[in-house]
Amino acid sequence: MDVDGVAILARGIAARGPEGIVFANLDLRVEPGALAVISGPSGTGRTSLLLALSGRLPLVTGHLDVSGHVLPAQAKAVRQLIRPARLRPGYELEDKHRVREAIAERRLISGVSERAVEAALDRVRIAPDRTALVDELHPAERLLLAVALTIAGSPAGILVDDVDAGLPRAARAQVWAGLREVTRTGMTVLASATDPPSGDVEVIPLPVREPERPTKVLDRQEEEVAR
Q: How far apart are CA 197 and CA 66, in angstroms?
């Protein structure tokens, strides 16, 4: 597996969610083949930034270039380049599928070969029981299975949300090691975590956001006084 990973350049980007601005005035650069980790406490906009960088959440301002594709105009092309392995909520393996069913479904959808799946499993260093239910796997193995099924199609980049959620330290180390192996193919890994690993990682810290103050709506009596 030899992949040309995506490069990302963002200047002054901002995005808005249902509850207001989720990140603003953000500059970042991600080199091809990097392990880039968006870090910060829950609620700082980590998932939203993953969505924005992959063309799945429109920006309200700023400049974002992904391997020569400028968003939002070329968001469709960027979505083809960067594929989600896990995004919460909404994009995770089905717990009640057996591992063999999850593999068969991904092969059907993406058209990858059994050989490509086997190589991807070897890349992240797991050998899951094909007869087990997905939710019977250890959380680290379950996450790495999702990663393997995604990289089997050789995208230019992948998204992995909440890498360290619910994992003890040893299991986190296993997952980060697997993601580093993915980057050795040239693929870019965009991940999010509360506690990023040390070493050869591009950390993108997100500050805690102050909640927006709601605009006060005057009631009828206050309107009369204001007049």
A: 24
Structure tokens at 27: 């500059």
Q: What dihedral angle (degrees, nearest 10) is formed by the CA atoms of 64, 68, 73, 78?
A: -90
- CB-neighbour burial class of residue 107 (10 A; exposed 0-12, middle 13-18, buried 19+): middle
CB atoms within 10 A of CB 222: 11
- Cβ–Cβ < 8 Å for 49, 26: yes
Residues 39-93: tens digit of each pLDDT: 988 878 999 999 999 999 999 999 999 999 999 999 999 999 999 999 987 789 9
Instruction: Decide if 66 contacts 79 (C-beta within 8 A).
Output: no
| Centroid of chain to Cα 158 | 7
Tokens 């009640």 map to which residue?
96
- Residue ranges per structural domain of the chain: 22-205
The tokens of 25 are what?
């005035």
Taking Cα atoms as reference points, which of 135, 53, 130, 156 lies closest to residue 93?
Answer: 135
Give this prediction's pTM: 0.88
22-205 folds as Rossmann fold (3.40.50)
